[in-house]
């Protein structure tokens, strides 16, 4: 009679037929993937061997899905720029309206975004003429690692500069007058936000921004901005097999770094390999589909049920620090921050030193809430209130923005309203200076100006942003209460 072994048994001393025998017992081992039959301690036959390989490759698909989230997100955004907007390398795209921003992961609805993607292998060295003024931005590679900030938190300190971006193997003999930035990858993302409160001054400031190949330095082209102009688009990671196709395509364009060689090895049994066509067989296609489905669930869990030590802003509320990366390079002392970057880049895009600022009055701060005070998911069919206490610690302004959990983008409600901020003078304030913001399918009478319309049957989450966070945020002495469900009035 065979003796079944449990998975835990293999963690201890192997069980032998007798003290003097070197032959493992035949039997079975019970595992999370089912029962594996043993013959002399080995998988008994092709069925058991295939089951183990299927599970191995499925696990690899899940883990490589999580690993690839940052690069797939930027590759998809670049693809949308090129195919939906007709924006070639270096073309600036401006996102101003609520409709424009509906395709961006966790965009803020208050400030305009100006974005550009470029492949330096195609353009050659690239110049970014960054103007002086109230702007914050920078340039990153396609792993979404910030290479340099620009503007208020960059080396120009808001005074403007000409930045020269050099790609792989590129050099320039005379760099006089330029701040040189060596990019670690061929593809780059440049993004900036105007923080100027006056709309006309903001427009004038943006008009001074330009980007062009160094080869055109003697006759730079005029600045041109294109807009989504109402076109539907989305830069979020595509789902299913489209995710892997986008990954395969961008891997062909980029060098493989030492930290990623092990993950590249995991992709080979899935039919994804550098310098080879994307041509998975039927078995691989099924595993890739399953890996994308479960991988996204894992990423979603990282984002919306954060388990990082020290993630909570304060013990008296459930607001969490959403940007848990130690540094924009995504590295900790002894490891790459895989889980932290998974959580952030599933729900958001880009990371810079300005977004992690610990200097009072500089950069931005981000707090996230995914549950109500009772610990339940935030339900678009119900009405909630957030009371923003008096004197929020923001040098510039604060904002509350609501996002759809499925898209991680601004909620696509008919009103085109997804945020409230201190830049809105119409907000109704309480006698003590606090502000009650209501999120629900209908406005609360008397607080129409403070209402963010939710969408019934859809879950949502919120970011509370502080622009120019002050000391009371940095030392967590300023409280921010939980989002509470309120009784609806008939």
TrEMBL record:
Residues 102-201 form the DUF1254 domain. It holds the Pfam family DUF1254. Residues 364-470 form the DUF1214 domain. InterPro entries: DUF1214, DUF1214_C_sf, DUF1254, DUF1254_sf. PANTHER family: BLL3101 PROTEIN, SIGNAL PEPTIDE PROTEIN. This is DUF1254 domain-containing protein. It comes from Herminiimonas glaciei.
């Amino acid at each position: 009679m065979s003796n079944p072994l449990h998975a835990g048994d293999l963690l201890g001393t192997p069980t032998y037929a007798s003290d003097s025998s070197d032959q493992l017992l035949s039997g079975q081992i019970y595992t999370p993937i089912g029962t594996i039959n043993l013959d002399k301690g080995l998988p008994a036959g092709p069925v058991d061997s295939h089951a183990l390989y299927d599970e191995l490759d499925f696990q690899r698909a899940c883990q490589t899905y999580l690993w690839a989230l940052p690069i797939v997100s930027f590759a998809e955004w670049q693809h949308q720029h090129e195919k939906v907007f007709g924006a070639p390398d270096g073309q600036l795209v401006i996102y101003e309206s609520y409709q424009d921003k509906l395709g961006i992961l966790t965009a803020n609805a208050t400030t305009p975004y100006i974005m550009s993607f470029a492949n330096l292998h195609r353009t050659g060295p690239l110049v970014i003429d960054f103007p002086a003024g109230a702007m914050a931005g920078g340039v990153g590679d396609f792993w979404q690692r910030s290479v340099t900030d620009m503007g208020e938190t960059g080396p120009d300190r808001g005074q403007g500069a000409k930045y020269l971006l050099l790609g792989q193997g590129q050099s320039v003999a005379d760099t006089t007058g330029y701040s040189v930035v060596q990019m670690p990858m061929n593809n780059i993302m440049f993004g900036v936000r105007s923080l100027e409160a006056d709309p006309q001054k903001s427009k004038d400031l943006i008009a001074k921004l330009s980007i062009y190949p160094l080869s055109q330095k003697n006759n730079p082209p005029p600045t041109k901005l294109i807009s989504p102009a109402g076109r539907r688009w989305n830069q979020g990671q595509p789902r299913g097999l489209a995710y892997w196709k986008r990954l395969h395509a961008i891997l062909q364009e980029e060098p493989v770094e030492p930290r990623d060689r092990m993950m590249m090895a995991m992709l080979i049994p899935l039919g994804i390999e550098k310098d080879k066509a994307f041509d998975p067989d039927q078995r691989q296609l099924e595993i890739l589909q399953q890996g994308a489905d479960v991988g996204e669930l894992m990423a979603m869990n990282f984002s919306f049920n954060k388990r990082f030590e020290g993630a909570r802003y304060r013990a008296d509320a459930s607001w969490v620090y959403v940007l848990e990366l130690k540094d924009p390079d995504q590295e900790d002392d002894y490891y790459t921050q895989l889980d932290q970057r998974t959580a952030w880049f599933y729900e958001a895009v880009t990371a810079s030193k300005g977004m992690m600022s610990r200097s009072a009055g500089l950069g931005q701060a981000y707090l996230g809430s995914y549950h109500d005070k009772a610990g339940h998911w935030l339900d678009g069919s119900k009405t909630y209130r957030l009371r923003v206490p008096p004197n929020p610690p923001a040098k510039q302004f604060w904002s509350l923005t609501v996002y759809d959990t499925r898209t991680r983008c601004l909620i696509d409600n008919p009103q085109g309203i997804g945020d409230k901020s201190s830049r809105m003078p119409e907000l109704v304030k309480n006698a003590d200076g606090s502000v009650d913001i209501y999120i629900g399918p209908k406005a609360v009478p008397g607080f129409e100006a403070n209402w963010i319309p939710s969408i019934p049957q859809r879950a949502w989450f919120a970011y509370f942003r502080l622009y120019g966070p002050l000391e009371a945020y940095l030392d967590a002495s300023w409280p921010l209460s939980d989002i509470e469900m309120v009784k609806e009035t008939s």
